[in-house]
Design goal:
This protein folds into two domains: about 200 residues, Spore Coat Polysaccharide Biosynthesis Protein SpsA, Chain A; about 100 residues, no CATH class. Strands 1, 2, 3, 4, 5, 6, 7, 8 and 9 form a nine-stranded mixed beta sheet that branches. It is globular, with a radius of gyration of 21 Å. Helix content is about 50%, strand content about 15%. Helix 5 packs across helix 11, helix 8 crosses helix 9 and helix 10 packs across helix 11. By secondary structure, it is α/β, with parallel strands linked by helices. It is built from twelve helices and nine strands.
Length: about 325
């Protein structure tokens, strides 16, 4: 296969080891890009025979920047590559995925990037892992975007100049918007692609991840919110209304009349509405509904953080939850 691999990571430890082992023997053209790990990740990758690149710590880290640097280095090592598999260091590629993905791109010249089914490795370990496993279960067929694990044509990646390196979140759908604008198509196959190890066991981790999502919604809507894309406009509005405007209105009004606190009942009602309309059954439907509604608050904070950074002309920094 005329394909290379770019793996990115930061303090992934054993997860990174499993990731690199899952790719061993598939292709000898692989680059690992490290974003300032302190757990010996770079040394481990090199000991496994993988080309390892450490990002310049004087420049703020982003996953987008790491993938761009990895792609650039991979092109230097193998300028003839047709496709590049992007992999997050907390994921393991499933056997047979690359062969199927490459075959699909070979048969569909109009498709720039392809991804498959992503599963959580330990969904039973915590509620938060289970929620991620539900989140990864997305429709197959033509898609508007792929996540961080995708097989992409090198030519298409270069045509749109890769990821926007300054985005701290939401860089994958933003890339796909530019790919589609250039005439390419995106596809999700009905095939197992990778196992993901979120390793999220604490409420604080989930809260930070949700804040990052709110930040991405606002920035994405600012970049591509105009028609026809309307990128993240609905998500940004939803988080702003439920996570900021409504609670502020209730608290201000309640200072005049405590009866306004009754408006807070709209939140459990929203949980009920989402749960009964869900395709999920049992406790999964209720957990998902509860955390979707609760998540509007950290998302709203993420939006405010983005707006504050913009007002102060301050660059956002990486939001880590592990």
């Amino acid at each position: 296969m005329n394909v290379g691999v770019v793996v990115i990571g930061r303090n992934e430890g054993e997860r990174l080891k499993r990731c690199l082992e899952s790719l061993a023997g598939i292709t000898g053209r692989m680059v690992y890009v490290d974003s300032g790990s302190t757990d010996g990740s770079v040394e481990m990758a090199r000991a496994m025979g993988v080309e390892a690149v450490g990002l310049d710590m004087r420049v703020p880290f982003t996953a987008a920047r790491a993938r761009n640097e990895g792609f650039r280095r991979l092109r230097e090592l193998a300028p003839d590559l047709a496709c590049v598999q992007l992999v997050d260091g907390d994921c393991e590629i499933v056997a047979g995925w690359l062969e199927s993905a490459v075959g699909f791109l070979d048969a569909h010249g109009e498709v720039a990037a392809v991804c498959g089914r992503l599963r959580e490795r330990y969904p039973e370990q915590s509620i938060y892992n289970m929620l991620c496993d539900i989140e990864w279960d997305t429709p197959v067929g033509e898609a508007r975007a792929c996540g961080g694990n995708m097989l992409i044509r090198a030519a298409a990646f270069e045509q749109v100049c890769g990821f926007r390196a300054d985005l701290i979140a939401g860089e994958e759908p933003e890339l796909c918007i530019r790919l589609r604008a250039a005439g390419w198509r995106i596809w999700r196959l009905d095939q197992e692609m990778a196992l993901h190890d979120t390793a999220m066991t604490r409420f604080g981790q989930w809260w930070k991840r949700s804040q990052r999502a709110g930040y991405a919604y606002t920035e994405g809507a600012l970049l591509h919110g105009a028609p026809p894309e309307r990128h993240y406009v609905r998500e940004a509005r939803r988080s702003l209304v439920w996570g900021v405007l409504l609670p502020v209105f209730v608290l201000v009004s309640a200072s005049l009349d405590p009866l306004f606190l009754g408006l807070l009942l709209v939140y459990p009602l929203q949980v009920f509405r989402i749960a009964i309309r869900s395709k999920l059954t049992g406790s999964k439907a209720w957990w998902r509904a509860a955390f979707l509604v609760l998540g509007r608050f950290p998302e709203g904070l993420g939006q405010l953080n983005f707006l504050l950074n913009r007002i102060l002309r301050r660059r956002g920094t990486l939001v880590e939850y592990k």
